[in-house]
Design a protein that fits this description.
The complex is a heterodimer of chains A (about 110) and B (about 120).
Chain A (H helix, E strand, L loop, with lengths): L3 E4 L2 E4 L5 E7 L5 E8 L3 E8 L6 E2 L6 E5 L5 E5 L8 E8 L6 E3 L3 E5 L1
Chain B lengths: L2 E3 L4 E5 L4 E3 L2 E3 L5 E7 L6 E6 L5 E3 L5 E5 L4 E6 L8 E8 L10 E2 L3 E6 L1
Parallel strand pairs in B: 2-12
Antiparallel strand pairs in B: 1-4, 3-9, 5-6, 5-10, 7-8, 8-9, 10-11, 10-12
Classes of the chains: A mainly beta (about 110), B mainly beta (about 120).
């Protein structure tokens, strides 16, 4: 079972470039999440999608946009990358009700 | 607003000794609580979860956690640590995965080092 798949695994961008991080889950989960992980700060929620067609801002949404393309896919877009967006990005998904989140393996993004 | 505090940034423990990681939360309703573990360069793996019922929950790898509503705590314990338990541990709080209650808030993490 693939679970939650993130692409790419590594990326280097120049300041001002744009890119989209892809996330897909094959568990038929309703909810999907994007987090960023920085040393000493744990995981901070960027955006959340409770179900197909809905998105909601998390703690640190500035500089990001998301698209819940369908039930399986939830993409994160950086329109104009900044060095402060250097981080490890994790996508997660969750079924409804009393369930836990399942995480992808992460995307390590460096903005130079 | 929901929040999670893990007071210990770094803990060093001898192999075979007991381990306790602290987690305090703030949440406006009955919380769903989770502990995740992350090995270097890896994603997050669920250790255990609490939704309701028995306040002492058992997880994988010999870990357990106790929910104490009066103290807003969900501390993680293991009686005897193995070298393979060296990792970073995250506590998380949230609600049912429907509408805005489904947001999961994570703590800053506790790095566990195991010495021989």
């Amino acid at each position: 079972n693939a679970g939650v798949t993130q692409t790419p695994k590594f990326q280097v961008l120049k300041t001002g470039q744009s890119m989209t991080l892809q996330c897909a889950q094959d568990m038929n989960h309703n909810s999907m999440y994007w987090y960023r992980q920085d040393p000493g700060m744990g995981l901070r929620l960027i955006y959340y999608s409770a179900s197909e067609g809905t998105t909601d801002k998390g703690e640190v949404p500035n500089g990001y946009n998301v698209s819940r393309l369908n039930k399986r896919e939830f993409s994160l877009r950086l329109e104009s990358a900044a060095p402060s967006q250097t981080s490890v990005y994790f996508c997660a998904s969750r079924a409804g009700g009393m369930t836990e989140a399942f995480f992808g393996q992460g995307t390590r993004l460096t903005v130079v | 607003a929901q929040s999670v505090t893990q007071p210990d940034i770094h803990i060093t423990v001898s192999e075979g000794a007991s381990l306790e990681l602290r987690c305090n939360y703030s949440y406006g309703a009955t919380p769903y609580l989770f502990w995740y573990v992350q090995s270097p360069g890896q994603g997050l793996q669920l250790l255990l979860k609490y939704f309701s019922g028995d306040t002492l929950v058992q997880g994988i790898k010999g870990f357990e956690a106790e929910f104490k509503r009066s103290q807003s705590s969900f501390n993680l314990r293991k009686p005897s640590v193995h070298w393979s338990d060296a990792a970073e541990y995250f506590c998380a709080v949230g609600g049912p995965a429907t509408d805005s209650w489904g947001k999961l808030q994570f703590g800053a993490g506790t790095q566990v080092v195991v010495t021989p």
